[in-house]
Q: What sequence folds into this?
């Protein structure tokens, strides 16, 4: 935890090392807006600078454009002694016993011995004052078990030192949080009924308001329904998300998913995811939402898919390839058949020619056998007789 004295020392060091060697008339602030705790003491940081040839003549803090030194509201509560250097110095304002009425814009203005003009920072520092008032941000009206309940302590978080916020319920410490003025009860329970208040560490004496809350009992799940993403056509291989929606107070504690009226569930989260849908995962789905007051079942929704176009394309390519291969095989078979037939025909022609030669040879034999001289010796006798007559 950073203590106020340490933090203010850091501010002084920062102020003393900022704006050195300036050749301009200038008023600077390390912050433009401050949140200050009521009844506390705070330092409003400031640094002024001017050319080295000039000297500070007058310096004055203004609240809402009016001199603080002349305002009776600040009498005895402010301390301001600007440091004088060759080129400027520290002009921070110490404000004690901060009040709600101190909220507003503070400016520092100065004049040098050379220039008659008042130099200032047009933005100044905006001061916001906070207390330890408890405010209910949500819900604004009726609080039901299971709702989100948000408390806020004070209007802002202090700028100088971040405090620890201490929340009490019925006078007992309920929760502590460093640097955050918000308390969330999500979901709110029946046992959270009671009176809530807050305090800030280091400001325990600060008056605090309190808020009493009443929590009415919740109810079982209602309007339970099922939604599917994608909502349009689902293609095989897609990722599908089924979400169970229900209104319940307190919120749904258990979700269950069922398919085709099966007894055992297929999922137990609010969203059931099918990373790659296929025909084996389709069917009728419904969900069950449950809290401590009861349960409710959604209507059944049919989940179906359309064949994947890429699969169809692969099948088509396979069919075409099969047809091509079959055609090639058929053509090869036809060619081989024609070749075989040709070879058979040539063989038959050759055989026929051989048989034809054999027939011719056979005929010559027959002719020879028909030669009369070869048939009988009587032919020689007759032939001799013919020759004798001729002579």
A:
């Amino acid at each position: 935890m950073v203590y106020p004295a340490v933090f203010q020392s850091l501010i002084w060091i920062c102020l003393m090392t900022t704006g050195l060697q300036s050749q301009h008339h200038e008023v600077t602030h390390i912050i433009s807006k401050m949140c200050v705790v009521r009844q506390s003491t705070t330092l409003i940081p400031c640094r002024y600078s001017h050319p080295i040839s000039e000297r500070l003549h007058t310096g004055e803090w203004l609240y809402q454009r009016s001199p603080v030194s002349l305002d009776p509201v600040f009498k005895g509560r402010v301390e301001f002694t600007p440091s004088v250097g060759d080129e400027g110095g520290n002009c921070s304002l110490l404000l004690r016993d901060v009040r709600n009425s101190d909220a507003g814009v503070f400016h520092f203005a100065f004049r040098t011995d050379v220039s008659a003009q008042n130099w200032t920072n047009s933005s100044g520092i905006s001061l916001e004052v906070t207390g330890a008032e408890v405010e209910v941000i949500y819900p604004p009206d009726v609080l039901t078990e299971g709702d989100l309940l948000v408390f806020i302590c004070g209007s802002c978080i202090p700028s100088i030192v971040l405090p620890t916020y201490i929340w009490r319920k019925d006078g007992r410490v309920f929760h502590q949080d460093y640097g955050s003025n918000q308390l969330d009860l999500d979901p709110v329970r029946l046992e959270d009924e009671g009176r809530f208040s807050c305090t800030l560490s280091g400001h325990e004496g600060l008056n605090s308001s309190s808020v009493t809350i009443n929590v009415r009992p919740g109810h079982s799940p209602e309007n339970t329904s099922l939604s599917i993403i994608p909502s349009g056509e689902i293609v095989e291989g897609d990722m599908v998300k089924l979400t169970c929606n229900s209104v319940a107070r307190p919120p749904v504690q258990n979700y269950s998913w069922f398919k085709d009226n099966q007894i055992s569930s297929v999922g137990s989260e609010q969203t059931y995811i099918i990373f790659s849908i296929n025909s084996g995962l389709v069917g009728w789905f419904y969900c069950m939402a449950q809290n401590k007051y009861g349960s409710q079942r959604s209507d059944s929704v049919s989940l179906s898919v359309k064949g994947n176009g890429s699969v169809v394309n692969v099948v088509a390519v396979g069919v075409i390839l099969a047809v091509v291969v079959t055609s090639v095989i058929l053509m090869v078979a036809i060619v081989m058949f024609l070749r075989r037939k040709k070879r058979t025909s040539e063989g038959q022609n050759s055989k026929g020619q051989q048989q034809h030669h054999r027939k011719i040879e056979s005929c010559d034999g027959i002719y020879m056998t028909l030669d009369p001289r070869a048939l009988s010796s009587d032919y020689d006798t007759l032939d001799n007789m013919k020759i004798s007559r001729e002579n």
